[in-house]
From TrEMBL:
<dbReference type="Pfam" id="PF04958">
    <property type="entry name" value="AstA"/>
</dbReference>
<protein>
    <submittedName>
        <fullName>Arginine N-succinyltransferase subunit alpha</fullName>
        <ecNumber>2.3.1.109</ecNumber>
    </submittedName>
</protein>
<dbReference type="GO" id="GO:0006527">
    <property type="term" value="P:L-arginine catabolic process"/>
</dbReference>
<keyword id="KW-0808">Transferase</keyword>
<keyword id="KW-0056">Arginine metabolism</keyword>
<dbReference type="InterPro" id="IPR016181">
    <property type="entry name" value="Acyl_CoA_acyltransferase"/>
</dbReference>
<keyword id="KW-0012">Acyltransferase</keyword>
<dbReference type="GO" id="GO:0008791">
    <property type="term" value="F:arginine N-succinyltransferase activity"/>
</dbReference>
<dbReference type="InterPro" id="IPR007041">
    <property type="entry name" value="Arg_succinylTrfase_AstA/AruG"/>
</dbReference>
Amino acid sequence: MLVLRPVQLTDLPQLQRLARESLVGVTSLPDDGERLRDKILDSRTSFEQTVHSPGPESYCFVLEDLTDRRLVGCSEILATAGFCEPFYSLRNRPFNSASRELNIEHNVPALSVCHDLSGHTLLRGFHIDAALARTASSELLSRARLLFIAAHARRFSDAVITEIVGYSSDEGHSPFWDAVGKHFFDLPYVEAERLCGLESRTFLAELMPHYPIYVPMLPQAAQDCIGRIHPDGQDAFDILEREGFETNSYVDLFDGGPTLFARTAGIRSIARSHSAQAKPVAAIDARGRYLVSNDSLENYRAIVAELDYIAGQPVGLDAGMCAALKVSEGSPIRLVAL
């Protein structure tokens, strides 16, 4: 059985392995022991704090195979993007130009550096073993974060965003970076993303041009990357799109990947989740497949389970499920159809 839980300091070696295997562009998961240790400690502090409104908290989760105690994925929630430093993006909106004398009006698509998205809750750090992509395990890793938000709503904003990794070649070349960012930093795309993971994107973002970049003036290969998803990022995109997230007029500063946005109350796993009580049972006459979580904070757990759910009644869980979720008779749980 796979269970999603908060990261622990003892997970550091395995978390670094996951970081090493993750996509270039997942800058919130750097392959650096010291940075990952800091991430774990920040996450532990966030889970332990009493919070009445969203702040700088980060909540890092790992997906563990209980059979061999191996980590097979990780994901994260940042309560407030841009709380400690601006959260930079590229705003992709047309620039309007007009001439009354010639009776001509023209809209030219343009990219502008901004931090409009600061203040929203940010989903980030998603990585799962390739063998588990596009399975229920991938759904668990992504969507269980949303059940956590549902259970602890005051810790998060009324809007949620995520950046999907943009296109780069197998050799690590990004046509968008080569056409834009590389002119301001003598760095290849892979190195720029590595520095963002080790330090922050702020020091690079502040050196980017703060005037409009007119899209038609970019090479066609770069234009084609605007809003384009890396093939290995499609699974993460599809899951959240089914949750009600939509692309908007913002793209990633370095690779042009799309940003997804949703109002928290309208997200499927939040709006359609049900609260219930656990009931230990010997056997289950399963009628459907669900994501199930407890409503704990520091001891948060979530699994995929075959259940017989009837609204308003306790939910039967077998011994393995109860142990994985750390629940007993009458414990509050939350579930949503898979």
